[in-house]
Design a protein that fits this description.
mainly alpha; 3-stranded antiparallel sheet; 3 strands; 71% helix
Length: 185
């Protein structure tokens, strides 16, 4: 008897004869991740800070903090969440891009059909964005009220949680894509 559930998704991707090929998976995974990584680091810091981080991460995070804790009076300022209690800068690498790139590369390298890959990429992007916004909001409160906790949470515990959540997403998506392909044939 072979593997079941998510583990089976690694072995085959549907009933059309597409099987998991480890070497091809690793090659495509590495190529997609490398391409995304180089494109990300080609973005000028100013564009990333003043446009992507400000409008995509910092401004929404300030709104969330002010929604749940209006007395914080947090405002967004050039890549940072600021208040009278704390200042939290968002810099390159603190935007969830690394985990998003890992998930996009893994989904892209899978043996699933294009429509399932596109849905997987969309799901990966949404999950990564939501988790990163929660991370930024949570870290703001840590900086404001438990500054000594910032380093271990920021450097170890939260990234490990996000990577684990991404791994679970990939396993669930893989199983779903395989089952969806099997039903469609």
């Amino acid at each position: 008897m072979g593997p079941t559930g998510p583990a089976r998704a690694f072995e085959e991707a549907g009933s059309r004869g597409r099987k998991f090929r480890p070497a091809l998976f690793l090659l495509v995974f590495a190529a997609v991740y490398t391409l995304l990584h180089f494109a990300y680091f080609a973005l000028p810091d100013r564009l990333l800070r003043d446009q992507v981080h400000y409008y995509g991460i910092v401004l929404p995070a300030a709104e969330i903090v002010n929604l749940v804790a209006p007395r914080e009076a947090v405002y967004a300022a050039h890549g940072a969440l600021k208040s009278s209690n704390a200042s939290l800068r968002i810099v390159r690498g603190c935007d969830g891009a690394g985990v998003a790139f890992l998930l996009v590369a893994a989904v892209s390298a899978s043996a699933a059909r294009l429509k399932y890959k596109l849905l997987g990429i969309l799901g990966a992007a949404l999950l990564t964005y939501a988790l990163n916004e929660l991370r930024v909001v949570g870290l703001y409160f840590v900086v404001a009220y438990r500054d000594g906790w910032f380093s271990p949470l920021h450097n170890y515990f939260v990234p490990i949680f996000i990577i684990l959540a991404g791994s679970v997403f990939f396993l669930c998506w893989s199983a779903w894509a395989r089952e969806a392909e099997a039903r469609s044939t």
